[in-house]
Request: fold
Amino acid sequence: MGELGIDLKGSNSPAKGLKELKDGDVKNLRDFIDGNNYSGSAGELPWIWRAVGNVLPPDAATTDVKRAIRDWEQEVLRLTWVHARSARDRWWEEQALLYEELRRIVATFEHFELSWRSRQPNVALASSAHSGFRAYSLKKAAIFQRLAKEARIKFSLVEAHQKGAAKALEFTPLVATGAGISGEAVLLGTMGTEIEEIY
Reply:
């Protein structure tokens, strides 16, 4: 006789829906939903949450209990869907932010290139200090010109990939700039090493 007063072995009327309780079956609702963070899997709920068998009070209507269990399962599925949609939305938002960050990297490099070009002395002086300053500003402008060129290439690859992914998935991006595929991997792929080599 178990603690619930149900004899699973050797009973003349076996408990319907009940199985041997294993460690893997004992799961709390927190294993499926943990606060606001979804931590469950797409797996099936353990049988103990769906068992109706002889553990019901004698006066409980089976259809009412089955309906309550079905409603509870529907609520878990609804919460699973809500959490999955929220994770998807956060992912799209992060992609949109990375896309905008990549666009701003291009604009920043272009700005610094123009800034260094504007620092050149307008009058050619014989002074070695002015020629050194001019050479330094040209060198810095060339560095930022190269960085801007490389960033534009990476950005165009991300845009092309984004448009292709949006078309393949047939969805409308969340923002006007697009929220398809992130440019983070492309940006971090080779550009980081090029920046280190220049400096």
In short: The longest strand covers residues 33-34. Helices lie at 62-118, 128-169, 184-198. The mean pLDDT is 69. DSSP finds three helices and two strands in the chain.
